[in-house]
Amino acid sequence: MIIKGNILNVFTDEIYPAEVKINKGIIESVKEVNGEFDSLIVPGFIDSHIHIESSMLTPSRFAELALKQGTTSVVADPHEIANVMGVEGIEYMINDSHKSPLNYFFTVPSCVPSTKFETSGATIDSKIIDDFLSQDEFVALGEVMNYEDVINKNPEIMAKIDIAKKYNKPIDGHAPLLSGSRLEQYIKTGISTDHECSTPQEVMEKKRAGMKIMIREGSFSSDIDHFMYNNGDIIVNDDISAYDLLNRGHMNHCLRKAVDLGLDPFKAIRMVTLNPAQHYNLNRGSISVGKAADLVFIDNLTNFNVNKVIINGNVIYKKEKLLYKANPSPIRNTIFANQKVPEDFNVCTKDPKSKCAIVNVINYKKDPLITQKTTAKLNVNNGVVIPSVYNDILKISNIERYNGNTISNGFIKGFGIKNGAIASTVSHDSHNIIVVGTNNDYMTQAVNFLIKNKGGLVAISNQGHAELTLPIAGLMSDKSPYNIIKSSEYLNKFIKNMGCNLESPFMVLSFAALLVIPELKMSNQGLFDVNQNKFIDVIEKEI
Amino acid sequence: MIIKGNILNVFTDEIYPAEVKINKGIIESVKEVNGEFDSLIVPGFIDSHIHIESSMLTPSRFAELALKQGTTSVVADPHEIANVMGVEGIEYMINDSHKSPLNYFFTVPSCVPSTKFETSGATIDSKIIDDFLSQDEFVALGEVMNYEDVINKNPEIMAKIDIAKKYNKPIDGHAPLLSGSRLEQYIKTGISTDHECSTPQEVMEKKRAGMKIMIREGSFSSDIDHFMYNNGDIIVNDDISAYDLLNRGHMNHCLRKAVDLGLDPFKAIRMVTLNPAQHYNLNRGSISVGKAADLVFIDNLTNFNVNKVIINGNVIYKKEKLLYKANPSPIRNTIFANQKVPEDFNVCTKDPKSKCAIVNVINYKKDPLITQKTTAKLNVNNGVVIPSVYNDILKISNIERYNGNTISNGFIKGFGIKNGAIASTVSHDSHNIIVVGTNNDYMTQAVNFLIKNKGGLVAISNQGHAELTLPIAGLMSDKSPYNIIKSSEYLNKFIKNMGCNLESPFMVLSFAALLVIPELKMSNQGLFDVNQNKFIDVIEKEI
Predict the structure, then answer these.
(1) How many CB atoms lie within 10 A of CB A381?
(2) Nearest Cβ partner of B288 from A209, A289, A291?
(3) Quick one: which of A50, A422, A513, B122 has the fewest CB in 10 Å?
(4) What are the distances in angstroms from CA A335 to CA A429, A446, A487?
């Protein structure tokens, strides 16, 4: 196969007309030629830190959208499904990814379960880590989130880190707000990336210490426009919704945005091609001899519109036509909770005669990941604390889905629902069933609906209900991305009509149980204070 | 150990006052502090491609000079001693290097023998390569010089390359003037560096193809001032004399020169610290947590004068005092040639009655590595071709030292000796005995002197003789560097008095047998035409 066009050279920051010869998927030759060409050919884009599960698409379905955006490789961290199904889940992701032409590389989830304070579906121990890291398609140890364990030199996490070193594979970090000597203890172990910076100062501290800074520009966190694009090494998505993947783009969106904000386009392109390829030792990321022939034809270095995509020497996308169709396999049910009754959702006072209670409330403000701890005074009726829809203090519950049938109930502020409940089996990181509602009846209906349907998202109000079924580990659908997007849009509209003004209510809901991010979160085992690293009582005081 | 000073951060291009805490040789913490400090602390300098043997010093002796120049690590390619003694020689280098605080890393010589057209002392096969590359201190496969074999996919060299890939270790290149599709075939195998560029165009072609460009700035080749310093990735010496190491400096000299020529000092420093450390996966190269505490205190970013050197947390050099003394071990004799007689050096015509002969002449011009092929008309006396001292057409002979007692005689232009002979057991790459002289008698005396003394350099004329004994494989001395430098200076002065105006006559002599570099070279097996890749007759025509 011979391709002609203006190629972008990531080593020399040049664009010149060239003839690229491809043989068996590998670039055999790149020769500068005379000639005028319309097409601008750049190396295929790499998203080197992404949780595919967040798109609610299986890997082969994800490819249906990502390929059109010029993404030719991803380094996927199957952390979510691993929490639900362990090795079985990771293997599902691998097998499904093999059905698509997108180059899937994986990191081995390092922190499953991510916390001992919530019940998860599986444990990935160091023996499993060793098995996976010995395989070529696993290119790194996945983000080490439990930085407290690292700082305390917990033997299990240190063993996992040592295994990655044994295989000479990078160790990804995840250390929001970690600083000073605690950050240094974390880095000293060999952890070399971070995608959690939230201030320019944090970027600078980590960069000075030699970390590779991953700028996160996904659906859940949009960091390019806030700061730091001048100090980044790699751009990643971390999490992206199917909707954004279709409508906004993937790495091409990141490039468009970064360049629009003033970043040198050659530097920006390196951040999604050469830099991640070198870091993860992928034999790609440049249009040069010996590298995999992953090529993307774009309009220009401003709009980054993708016209044609070649992966491993095969044309995959051309003239708005994707030459590939996914056909994901099913997988066993993973939702094992018993049907609930309204009383299961009660928050009870010790003294049934209390009139009021001061309760700790999860306060969601703006960043979907971070919550604040606040308090509220609520009425008590026959020993049961009553939410205040007027003050937007709603009920939140986390129901274990792994057969133990534990449940934990509390309060949350920020959803604005006036009537109804929303529930999800996507709830980071253990993915139990999380539900927010204005009363126990709606919450019961929502949770029982998900149990019956083997996972998904649901909203129930006096107007009826809206749903999205996620039979793959309660996290993903095997249906077409276009169906998912349609159902999601309907769900969001439905929820808006319930009075909720959040842009992504299910995203906020899914992070309400994420015990590794400050400040107050809801586990199936109780209300968890991240800063104190312990459970606290929902009721502070009865009056 | 706590160190305070202005540190240079290679990740952020900053200099700021900081406190560096060191524990067990590793940087434990780097904290910005308030304060004014005189000292500027930079990461220890790394020479990532060097043949220690060229200094004629053993590794532990080399360290005596290099440490004072701020060199804290080298990646040594023991290619020379491997050609003489194989595994035994490489192990000598390792053992001797362990006697010094300098961090020695090694590459495994990939091309021993480097040619089948000269007799060498050993063979490094792929089995040996595998043994060495499995060890941590071997960080790469050494420069693959026999590019013809690579292009022709010779199974033995391909096996060696595959072993390096198996261990995920880089493969160094050496491909002077290689270009176009032949270069592409070479790079496609995974060879990733080149230190042999001789024009800006060559740099650009190799850089475009993704090679890391090593700028060579050593005693034998000085490339920083000619070109390319803007496109280089790494600065290396390749070969350096003890004299230059003492008087000019090592990587500090390279930095001084590069910055003086306009290179950004931060970029220049990265080229001898972070860049080589990352390429060879050395856990050093930056003043940052978790890295080896290799620190160099310099005056400023202009003169790069070294005041203090810390390696692995230990002060090695301070206030012009080196806190280390070498004590190299001896090694067995490696010179096994029989004593010669003058007739051994004859170049004979077929017809004893010929009056003249047109001979092929090795023409040395300016670059000590590259020779040109030229011809000359010489007188014949009783069937023996007579050199023309008047026209500077001298005799050159290559005498095997590995017991076979082969000898090959020819002619060379460029030495300018009026009277006498110079001989050496340093003659790349097989290190037989090479001699240039004005007549057979002097040549016989010079060669027999080296055989008797078990290796070294010698010059003999009607004024007497000068010598430098090299008992370690005929390549290195176990004596103090200062003795070597003194002897070398005397030798060079002596040779100048013989009429030779070459700046480094022994360097030119040592490359006269280097069959991998164009154009005409002298092997012990005959006169070799590098471009044609075959032996040619010395006598083109008899008249």
Answers:
(1) 11
(2) A209
(3) B122
(4) 15, 14, 21
- Residue of A12, A187, A204 with shortest CB distance to B204: A12
Question: What amino acid is encoded at B322 in this protein?
Answer: L
Residues of chain A with pLDDT under 70: 227-229
Contacting A with CB below 8 Å, chain B residues are: 9, 11-12, 14, 26, 28-31, 168, 180-181, 184, 187-190, 204, 207-210, 231, 281, 286, 288-291
DSSP codes joined into one string, A207-276: HHTTPEEEEEBSSS-B-TTTS-TTT-SEEE-BS--HHHHHHT-SHHHHHHHHHHTT--HHHHHHTTTHHH
How many other C-beta atoms can be found within 10 angstroms of the C-beta atom of residue A37? Answer: 13
Helices marked H in B114-154: 126-133, 147-151
Sheet of A26-32: strand order equals: A26-32, A14-23, A2-9, A40-43, A295-298, A306-311, A314-318, A321-322
Asked if B30 and A290 come within 8 Å (Cβ–Cβ), the reply is: no
Q: Tell me which DSSP letter residue A479 carries.
A: S
Tens of pLDDT along A96-146? 999 999 999 999 999 999 888 999 999 999 999 999 999 999 999 999 998
Of A12, A289, A291, the CB nearest to B207: A12
State whether B11 and A189 contact (CB < 8 Å).
no
Asked if the Cβ–Cβ distance from B30 to A208 is below 8 Å, we say yes
- CA-CA-CA-CA dihedral for A251, A254, A258, A264, to nearest 10: 0
CA distance B433 to A514: 73
Tokens 């000292």 belong to which residue? B39
Residue A269 dihedral angles phi and psi, to the nearest 5°: -65, -40
pLDDT above 80 (res B493)? yes
Cβ–Cβ under 8 Å, residues B161 and B155: no
Q: How far is CA A106 from CA A113, A167, A251, A269, A478, in A?
A: 18, 15, 18, 22, 20
Residue of B136, B153, B181, B184 to mutate, testing the A interface (most A Cβ within 10 Å of its Cβ) = B184
For the stretch A508-540, what's the b/e string if a residue is b when 16 or more beta carbons lie within 10 angstroms of its beta carbon?
A: bbbbbbbbbbbbbbbbbbbbbbbeeeeeeebbe
Q: Which of A27, A3, A12, A24 lies closest to A289 in space, CA to CA?
A: A27
CA max distance for chain A: 89
Q: How far apart are the C-alpha atoms of B259 and B255, rounded to whole Å?
A: 6
A&B contacts, CB < 8 Å: 73
Closest CA relative to residue A202, chosen from A185, A220, A227:
A227
Crossing angle of helices B59-66 and B79-97, rounded to 10°: 70
Residue whose structure tokens are 């400023």: B300
State the Cα–Cα distance between residues B431 and B415, nearest whole angstrom.
20
* Burial of A439 (C-beta count, 10 Å sphere; 0-12/13-18/19+): middle
Cβ atoms of A447 and A340 within 8 Å: the answer is yes
Nearest neighbour of A184 by CB, restricted to B29, B187, B208: B29
C-beta of residue B394 within 8 angstroms of C-beta of residue B416: no
Length of chain A (residues) = 543
Tokens 């947590």 sit at which residue? B289
Interface predicted TM-score of the whole assembly (ipTM), two decimals: 0.90
pTM: 0.92
Peptide bond into B519 cis (omega under 30): yes
What count of Cα atoms within 13 Å lies in the side-chain half-sphere of residue A361?
26
- What are the tens digits of pLDDT across the range A419-444? 999 999 999 999 999 999 999 999 99
For residue B450, give both structure tokens.
């080296």
CB contact under 8 A, B210 and A30: no
What does the angle CA A94 – CA A100 – CA A105 come to, to the nearest 5 degrees? 45
Compute the residue count for chain B. Answer: 543
